[in-house]
Amino acid sequence: MGRQKRSYIAVSAVAALLAVAGCAGQGRGTAPGDAKGRPTAPAPRTPSGNGKGPADGKGPAEGTLPGVPSAAQARTQLARLKVAPQRSMTGYSRDRFPHWAEQGDSCNTRETVLERDGRDVRRDAECRAVSGTWTSVYDGRTFTKASGLDIDHTVPLANAWRSGADTWTQEKRKAFANDLTRPQLLAVSAVSNRSKGDQGPDEWQPPARSYWCAYARSWTAVKSSYALTVTKAEKATLVSMLDTCRG
């Protein structure tokens, strides 16, 4: 065998070894490294849309409500609530709960909740939602026009009145009607909101059973924050609804 042929075989063998080594490295799925061969951290994930989803740590049935307690916290709060019959509706009027309050930048409470609870919401110069997508957690219906939505008070104003708000100052009732820090306000389908009216959990529950856990936790948190009373039937129903929570 001539020197030229032997050299050709040697070069081919080295090339084959290098190719095999390269394929073996790729097959192990090793992470890319930096210039010194150290592994690099994967690029951070950025939340999609407006960041309302798994990135904010909330389950899909909780929507965008702030201040929703855990099921365990809600059970503790519920156990501490005073049980009492509902009071009289004498003197009640929605005007006793001024809403919707101005929230700055020409926006009122309604428009603020619409922006918070929707996706890709666009507002005009007067802060009115002119487009976007909203899903009503009460019944799972989806809307692309804000006109199909109501802003619901988790604990209705009339229910609050019968539970102790009749003794509050007007300023406190205004704060209650425009509360954006507790799970008291949310955008839902107009039909579900009007079906609910001023009824308590023992009289009305969201058609979407998947929302019962979040609804009971939210209702309990609001009544606890404002030291409102619950009826015996109301408390029993809340206990049952909390039992639908996982964990």
Give a verbal description of the structure:
The chain is α+β, with helices and mostly antiparallel strands and 247 residues long. It has helices spanning 3-27, 71-80, 109-117, 157-162, 170-177, 190-196, 212-225, 232-242, and strands spanning 102-104, 107-108, 119-123, 129-135, 142-143, 149-153, 185-189. Helices cover 36% and strands 12% of the residues. It has one domain. The protein has a three-stranded antiparallel beta sheet with strand order 3-4-5, with helices on one face. A two-stranded antiparallel ribbon has the order 1-2.
List keywords for this structure.
disordered N terminus, 3-stranded antiparallel beta sheet, alpha+beta, 247 residues, 12% strand, single chain
How would you summarize the topology of this molecule?
Elements: H1 3-27, H2 71-80, E1 102-104, E2 107-108, H3 109-117, E3 119-123, E4 129-135, E5 142-143, E6 149-153, H4 157-162, H5 170-177, E7 185-189, H6 190-196, H7 212-225, H8 232-242
Antiparallel strand pairs: 1-2, 3-4, 4-5, 6-7
Helix pairs in contact: 2-7, 2-8, 7-8
